[in-house]
Structures are given as structure tokens and as C-alpha cells.
Amino acid sequence: TQYVYRFGGGVSDGGSGDRNLLGGKGANLAEMASIGLPVPPGFTISTEMCTRYYEEGEQFPQSVRDEVAGGIAHIEGITGKTFGDAADPLLVSVRSGARVSMPGMMDTVLNLGLNDETVVGLAKAADDERFAWDSYRRFIQMYADVVLELDHGAFEEALEIAKEDNGFTLDTELSADHLKALVAEYKGLVEKEWGKPFPQDVHDQLWGAVGAVFGSWQSERAKVYRRLNDIPATWGTAVNVQAMVFGNMGDTSATGVAFTRDPSKGDRAYYGEFLINAQGEDVVAGIRTPQYLTKVAREEAGAKPASMEEAMPEVYGELAAVFDTLENHYRDMQDIEFTVERTKLWMLQTRSGKRTAKAALKIAVDMANEGLITHEEAILRVEPMALDQLLHPTLDPSAHRDVIAKGLPASPGAASGAAVFDADTAERWAAESKAVILIRTETSPEDIHGMHAAKGILTARGGMTSHAAVVARGMGRPCVSGAGGISISAKDKVMRVAGREVREGDLLTLDGTTGEVMAGLVATVQPELAGDFGTLMVWADEVRRLKVRANAETPQDCRTAREFGAEGVGLCRTEHMFFEGARITLVRQMILASDEKGRRAALDKLLPEQRSDFAEIFEVMAGLPVTVRLLDPPLHEFLPHEENEFAEVAEAAGIDIDTLKARAAELHEFNPMLGHRGCRLGVTYPEIYEMQARAIFEAAIDVAEKSGDAPIPEVMIPLVATKRELDLMKAVVDKAAKTVFEERGRTLKYLVGTMIELPRAALKAGEIAESGEFFSFGTNDLTQTTLGVSRDDAARFLGAYVEQGIYPKDPFVSIDVEGVGELIELAVERGRATRPDIKLGICGEHGGDPASIAFCEKVGLDYVSASPYRVPIARLAAAQAAL
Ligand code: ADP
Ligand code: MG
Ligand code: MG
């Protein structure tokens, strides 16, 4: 097997198609080199080597050592420099790079190849002593941190002291002599902490660094990131070894990061930051405040220091041309790293840029309109779940804002919550369903779990490309970064700003779109659904086959669902109506009645209530199908508990409280979810379903008479296991329909069908379809009954199950395709064999999950039904599934 792939100097052993093998970084470096962009030469050790490295007890086979020697020779041939040469040494960077970008997860070592001897050669060759010693001290610091895993605090402290002693504030003010002294101090620190002197052999340095990159694949923070992002551990990382280019060679040198379009709003404008006389991570780490790339951006921000466009117009022009080349080549917005070494531009990385949902939408729609991509590609470019960010409220522009600080609008959206000052607390409080805002001076990969748990993130330091900003945008969390003027003490759990204090637990609101930080809660408004969102939805609707309905049981939910484009109601749960106001007493009276007469007395009073509920929903949904599920939950759930609840029911029913309590005790169940619920209620008390059916038909006729536009009621019988159950219940429904139609002197189109939510029903679907005119897969219960896992109790162990790969994802979130999916496929096949035009849908939580929607498309369901806010997500996911 070949493990080493070269790039640069006219050679590219790989390309952008090799991302699995070379990692994203390596594949794109090779690709950029092959399209003639200026890339420092180098080579990539493949992800296959990472896997083998772990298989073989973290060792490198001789063949790989030989291949790496060949890679080094490749770089030497192009640069004319020799690795370890005392006169004109080749320096390299050792960079990690997995298949997908994992911001900040893996570590990079720069300036490798420096030692006491080569540093002197470098100074001479570059004719810049300060530069050489600056590079050496950076190298030791990084190597000690990443490879030797020594505490980096001591190194930073030494640097701070060196600056303080001289009255400096910036690293760049340190002279060559200061840096020499610092290097000596660093080497002392290494020897003290590590027990051995800093490695002087450049080959030892190289292999140490390569091993460390592979080693970091199994670091704790990489594992956390993988878990949060569903990245399998088997992918491994690649290692890139690349000739160094130097942005720290004085005022004609610089380093920067850029996006070819605005990653936050999506505007077609170059966007980025750079630093003169700096290296690599200085920009992201917030060591100095970076300068803007373009003049427009600088002016807009009212910033003073010259933009790159102004300070280095020629190189900037070259860079802009590279941006266009890259966008046309990759046909997507790119996130780029570059370095200028003495006015010469070098490209160090490109990848598809992370973006907010808003930017993703705008960029996809714009690029399609520019003719760069097709409508289909535009549809595939937007992650359906990311729309969630756009569908939720933003801050009400007219609400009062008690602004206490302002930072950079690092990730848009509004968030309110209680202030917390560390990631662990954020995670703990969020687990208790508290909304929290995570406040940090700056974030690092160790904070990822807290950022994930938080509703929003606030940092005192760091720019638009800081760790906090990049990660927050990726997660869709609102973020305000670099809020100057605030001082944070994580230890004392307090933030101070302009004479005010925010303590742990205090409420705070962030506006990630403006960068404002406000005390207290601020009112929100509904999102705007026109514009790019509307355009993409139109395109999606043109290609999707699956219909999208909503799970909704209130007129308000139905209106929201229609605004979001729902094509009907796929699940209207009638029991929610039973809990409202005074009705619960009637319901209790009904279920606690000792005979049919008692039940009917209560049901007669419930009838007008149900009818008016249905009428309101049918009005909103006029002309569309509405699936109404007859009463489903265990009677158990309706039982009174408190003394006063018993008293109320006793009075309403006119029976004494002790009889009532005795009856309630009789109804107690050990396992209510497998107990007296679903159609079992209808079988034992048909008058309940009779009343509900009557309410449905009366309401439907009322609406048809009033508006002329009748809804299409689909009466759904829950928890059916056998055809006979459905037959009995269908007879009740049909009889109610017949009676109402006779009374009102008109008829109405309606369907009677069933949920498929028990394995037996799925197996006997062929028979059940003889009576059922539609099936709706109730995948919550079907998952629960197929797996034998109670969804109300699963939280305690399901995490461990997913972690150990027993189920790839939470089966209550994303359908268990192998097991539950097979039952669905079988039911679809058998149902259709009996009744070719049977209507098939899904109404579990899975109806709003993109992966499950793809499955529904595959098995050929007619529609999915999701909660109202998930409807646009489902429309987009359905379109993607159809492509
Ligand atoms: P990350 O994945 O964390 O961005 P990178 O490997 O991209 O890590 O490197 C970190 C920083 O070092 C980046 O700013 C990158 O541009 C810079 N860098 C990496 N390799 C070189 C090199 N050969 N010459 C100059 N700068 C480099
Ligand atoms: Mg890094
Ligand atoms: Mg990078």
C-alpha cells in the first residue's frame, strides 16, 4: 500500500476526490496545486496509515519511513533547501487533517526542523535574525505543547514576563536578543518538565510530530467532537507535512484567513482578517486584533488600521483572483488560509466554508441564480436541520433593550438564558432544562460540550474567526465574540462591564446578529419566511414527491403549519383537547362512570366541546386532509390524583367520593402503555369513539356549509393489532357518519384507517388493509414495541447504547432502518398488495427527521407528518430524498 502522497512543484498524487484517504486538508492542497495555485510543496500521509498506526500498537513500519524520506526529498528538490541543513535549512509544518474539518480538534506544529544549529543558518539565509529566533521560540513552544504535552502555561508566562520586563505589549516588539534569551529559557523549561533536552535531531522532531498528530485522533476533545457530530472513530486523520512559508518576515509579510463570501449573512463579498508580520494561528488565537481584508469592511466597522486591500494592494489583487478561481473550481463558498512571505502569496488551505443557515440559503440561491450551480444542487447545499435556526423567533426590534455590552456579531440569532461561566455548569444546568448563556474570556476545544448545551455564547476576546465564532456558527448557536470592555472571572463566576455585574444565574440576552449583549429577557418576533427561504422552498416543492403534513391539534398550530407549507394534518391528537379547562372533570366523570349510562351523560356534555375544536381546525385546513386520531392514551393518565380533583368529579357526577376512589383504584394499571389504551378503549366503551366520530362529522359539515370548502376527515383508529379490532371500530365510525349525514341531509367524503404501531399490525397489514383505507405509521410506539424499549425510560441507558454502537443513533429520533424499517417495508408491501391505492404516511417524531424522511421516500410512503416548525425542514429533506 502507498501511504505517502506528494503535492506541489507540478506534482499532485491526489486531488479533491481523495478526501477519505488524504483528509480534507490534504486532498484540497493537492487539488489547489494541480490547478496551478501557489501551494508550498509537501506530502500527505494517508488516513489508512492512522488506522494501521493504531492497529500496530502506535508504531510506524519501515516502508512508511522510506516513503516519508521520499516525501522530504520531494520538498527539498523543489525548495532547494535541505532538511536539517546548517546553512539553509528546510522547515516544515506538520498538520492534521481528517475527512471532515474538525475545528481546533487536532494540532499543528509549525517551523519544524529548527535546532540550535539550523536557527543560525536560517537567520543568515533570510538575513533576519529576529525572524529566525522568533520562529525557533514559536517552534519550541508548539512542540512542547502538542508533541511533548507539557503545560503550555509556563511558556506563555515566560513570554509575558519577557514583554513586561521590557515594557512591551506586543510580541513583535521583542528583539532578536530578547527572543534568544527566551529560547534559552524555553529549552530550560522543556528539560525541567520533560526530563530530557529539547530534541535537536530534526528527524526525531518530525516523527515525534507525526506520531502526535495521529495520537491526537484519540484525544478526549477529538472524541467529544466526534460524538457530537456523528463522526466514526474508524475514519482516522491524515498528516500533512509541508514546506514552511513565513508570514513573520517583517512588514511585507502577513498571514490571514478569508471566506469568498460572507459566512454569516451570505453576501457576495470577500470577507476575512489578516495580520502583518505574524504566523499561522496568531489570527485565530486573538494574540493581536486582526485587520480587515477589504476597505469596505474596514470602513463599515469604523476601524483604523489599514485593510489588506489598502496596505498590500498588489498581493490583495492576486488573492482576490485566487478567490474567484477557487469559487469557480469548487462551485461553493470557500474558507481559505493564506500567507504572504515578502510580498509572495501562498495558499495554505481551502475548504467549503462553514456558514450560518441564513448564509447557506442565500449562497445556494445566489449561486443558482449566478448559474454556478443548478436548482437541484442548491437544494442539496442546505442542511435541512439548519433551517431550524431561521424558523425560530428573533428579537423584537421594538422591545426595550438594556444593552450592557457590544461585541462582534459572530453567529446570528437571539438567545436568552441564565449566565454560566464554565462548560460543565452549562451542561449540568441544560440537563435540568434550563436555558443558559455560556460566558468565557475565550473558548477552546475543552468548552465544546458546554457550547453545545448553551443557548448562546459570549466571549470577551477573539474575532469573527475565533474558535468560539467558528464553532458557534457550525452548531447554529447565537454568539457574540470579542465583547471589549467586559471582564470575566470564571473563578468568581462574575462578569463586570461598565460598572455593572452579571453573576451566575442572572438572565442575559444575546443578539448574535448585531453583537449586542442585554441584561434580562428581551421579547421576540416570528421569523420572516419570504426571500431566499421562499425561493428555495419553491424549488424544493418542485422536485419532491412526498407530501408534507403537520402534527397539530390546535387552530394556532394549524395556522403555523399552513404558513410553513403543510399540506394537511397528519396527526390530530384528540386527547390533548380533553385536558383543557373544565373538560378534564367531564372526562374523569366519563371514565369513572360505572356504566354506559353514566358515561353517555358525560360524553353528551363533551360532544359540543369536541365539535367546536374540530370546526376551528377544519376551518384553517379547509380543502385539505385532516387525520384525526380517536382517543388513544391509557385511561390511567386521566385519573384524578388530588383530593380536590376527586371532590370536583364527585360533585359533577353526583356520586360519593369513596365510590369514586374505589373505581379509580380499579382502573390503576401496572403498565399503562401496554394497557387499557388505543382502540381497546373503543372496543370496551364504543360510545367514546361514537361521540368523537359524531363530533368530527358534525364539525366537518358545519364548516362545509359555512365556507363551501369541506375538509377531508381521515378518522384514524389507534393501536390496532388485528383486523377484527379495526372492523369493530370502523363500524362505529361509519354508523356515526351515516346518522349525521341523514340528520344534516348531506354527505361528505371521509376515510377510515388505522395506525400501524404494533409489530402484529405490520405483519398482518395485508389483512388489515381489507378494511383500512389508509395506514399511518406511528413510529414512536412502533419503535417502542418493536425494540421493547419504553421511550419514557430509555434516557437512562440509550446513551450508552448509542455510544457502544448498539444502535447507530437514538432510534426514537432517527428511525431504526434495519429493524423497525423492515416492519414498515413489509407492511407497505402487504398493504399495497391488498389495496393498491392505500394512502400511506408516517406521523411519529421521525416524520420531521431528515434521515427518516429519506427512508420514507425509499419505501414509497405518500406523506410524512411533522410538528409545525419541522414542516419546512421536512419539505427540504423530502426534496433532497427525491434527488
Ligand atoms: P487548523 O486545522 O487548526 O487550521 P492548520 O494545519 O491549518 O491547522 O494550521 C494552523 C495554522 O498554521 C494555519 O493558520 C495555517 O495556515 C498555518 N500553517 C500551516 N502550515 C503552514 C506552512 N507550511 N507555512 C506557513 N503557515 C502554515
Ligand atoms: Mg489548530
Ligand atoms: Mg487550518
From TrEMBL:
Cofactor: Mg(2+)
EC number, UniProt record: 2.7.9.1
Catalytic activity reported: pyruvate + phosphate + ATP = phosphoenolpyruvate + AMP + diphosphate + H(+)
Domain Pyruvate phosphate dikinase AMP/ATP-binding residue range list: 20-369
Domain PEP-utilising enzyme C-terminal: residue ranges: 530-881
UniProt keyword terms in alphabetical order: ATP-binding, Kinase, Magnesium, Metal-binding, Nucleotide-binding, Pyruvate, Transferase
InterPro entries xref list: ATP_grasp_subdomain_1 (IPR013815), PEP-util_enz_mobile_dom (IPR008279), PEP_util_AS (IPR018274), PEP_util_C (IPR000121), PEP_util_CS (IPR023151), Phosphohistidine_dom_sf (IPR036637), PPDK_AMP/ATP-bd (IPR002192), Pyruvate_phosphate_dikinase (IPR010121)
Alphabetized Pfam families for the sequence: PEP-utilizers, PEP-utilizers_C, PPDK_N
Transmembrane segments: none
PEP-utilising enzyme mobile domain ranges (all copies): 434-515
Family to which the UniProt record says this protein belongs: Belongs to the PEP-utilizing enzyme family.
Role played: Catalyzes the reversible phosphorylation of pyruvate and phosphate.
Protein name: Pyruvate, phosphate dikinase
Lineage of source species: Bacteria, Pseudomonadati, Pseudomonadota, Alphaproteobacteria, Sphingomonadales
